[in-house]
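haha ok so turns out i had the wrong file open the whole time. this is the CORRECT one, sorry everyone. sequence first:
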Amino acid sequence: MAVNAPTYLEPDGFISPAAAPTRLIVVFEVDLQLGTEGARLSLCPTFLPIATPEDPGICGCGTAEDCAAQCLTEATMTVELVSPHVLIADFGSLLRPRTGCPYVAVMEAGFLETQLAPSNPSPRTEWSFIYWPPAPTGTFFEQMLHYRVQVRHRTMFSSTTTSLTVRVSWSIPMTTTCGVLVGSSTMQQTDPLDFTGSREFLEVRIIGLVPFTQYTVTCTGVAIGDTVVTASVSKSGLSTEPDTNDRLSDIVVTIQAVCNIFAAVNASGTNESVANVSQVLVPVEAALLPVFDPTLRQYQLILDAEDARDLCGTSESEAVFRIQVTAITQSPFATAVVDQPVLIMAQRLPDSTGFLPPEAPRSQVSQARL
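then structure:
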């Protein structure tokens, strides 16, 4: 009686059970028994052409010899003919199939033979399979997304929100990285954290949020011990409110008197002297009026020309001030722009008769409105 090819092979093809396979099963239609001792039963990983000793790839063997060294045979597996039709080769924990690696099982001709005389050998049987575990699932715990208001399935945060904390759990242990997306670009990303399953969830804090922006929070996990297996979970519809705080927290004014220093120097190659003019900046104490108040929009700065003359040590020169203004905003996201620099010139005061030249302003001081 001729022995046809097996009617059932397990595992076979692309398999995705919850647990990795631990045995081979072969089913024939005729009654068989173990055959000659020379025939072999083996289970080996496939040598992939792209694998190298430096990068052995998903099968973990960088050469054909390395793959052959990982083979299991009837000598290392528990092989049992549990019935005249069914052969089971149990490899248990000796091999945990690597995710995505093709494995080849070979039962050589004559490994089994018919029970009836004259006996006939079983044919050479070869089959392969790839193990890929089920995709992990992730879950967000939304109670950790502290939002200000929820409108039409959108979660709105205050404009002052710069970070948020999320809780995520996985169906298997995963190394997790979370971040926020604006469009398709990742704006902020956390360092990897391990979810081992010892706790109900993994708590992750994401920083770097800015006002008036729509976000999608996404967490990507890589299976611990199996980097080929990845999964991600995301939540969209997160927004921060516009920043409407345009008030200042302070105005800093730096005032300097511009003093011209004249010095006579000899001209090169002659006995004649020429005037050399240089400028020196001398700090001046002054204050804005009224006292700073975030609700006010306009201030005055009053400077006396005599202050500049006293500091510069001259009574004849014009009084020139250099004023630098810095505004500090209450909101960390706002900016204040001040035109720099500001120059104010105060004309001479009236002479002893109480009269000013026609072109001089009729005021003892110069005022700058900032």
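The domain at 138-240 is CATH 2.60.40 (Immunoglobulin-like).
again sry for the mixup
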